[in-house]
Here is the input.
Amino acid sequence: MGNRKTTWHYQTDTLNIKKITRNVKHKLGEGGYGYVYRGTLRSGNEVAIKILKQSKAHGQDFIDEVATIGRIHHVNIVQLIGFFLKDSKQALVYDFMSNGSLDKHIFTKERDKFLDYKKIYEIALGVARGIEYLHRGCDRQILHFDINFEMLLMEMASRRKNWVYDHVNEGESVEMDEVVEKEREVIKNMIIIALWCIQLSPNHRPPMNNVLEMLEGDIGNIQMPQKPLIYPSDESVDDDRVEMELETFSTSSSAPIISASFPF
Ligand SMILES: Nc1ncnc2c1ncn2[C@@H]1O[C@H](COP(=O)(O)OP(=O)(O)OP(=O)(O)O)[C@@H](O)[C@H]1O
Here is the structure.
């Protein structure tokens, strides 16, 4: 990965996905848009090839979308290095990420494979930098609707998919017997930042550059936000506040400029 330019090796008439994947007939996984296979280029470089299922974009539309994604160059964002297009068959070629998907690491049940908190913090920072680049660093603003970053942060910090507001607000420790005090502080801060990010009203949520500042800043300086309204089975939330927040939400000017998260 890195800041190298996208190279469009694969043109329509040279489409031969089978050839590239012939040596390693290895399915890496499946996402909402198709299967992902591991392959090897003639250069020896390993790639991940996502063969798209049903695409709404055809021909020039597909190429335009690919060109947009191809302009994204950031060390924390997997690099698109090429594409295939032949008739209705479309595929995207990415650098191969040997560590696989992040969720596999966050939610592993094997204790010896748990990421340590330094690593979790580094990953959170990397994800935040990647998103901040998409929001502000590209020549077009890109909103990635697939990343609930804030939830990712929460899940990474607590290694579980649940809500932790009350624990943190009441000064209780999140269950982390295995970590030392300093690490607790780092994790607590990550959770507080995540709680800022899930405020219902966009006006109450910090922009990504502030999220980055908070992540990189002094531990201990981050204030607790309001209790997020998106809170399961919470009978204490009063209806007026919900109305008020929803009002702000619907009249907010922080509307997306462009959605470009693989809209094929
Ligand atoms: N560049 C890559 N390197 C290594 N493995 C990859 C790569 N891209 C995808 N994979 C594997 O393929 C799986 C499916 O990826 P894909 O991007 O299609 O879906 P997703 O991100 O899980 O979901 P969505 O389709 O909603 O984006 C991933 O979980 C991962 O295991």
Remarks:
- Residues 28-33, 36, 48, 50, 78, 94-97, 100-101, 146 surround adenosine-5'-triphosphate (CB under 6 Å).
- The two ends are 24 Å apart (CA to CA).
- The chain has nine helices and five strands.
- Residues 1-15, 231-237, 244-264 have pLDDT under 50 and may be disordered.
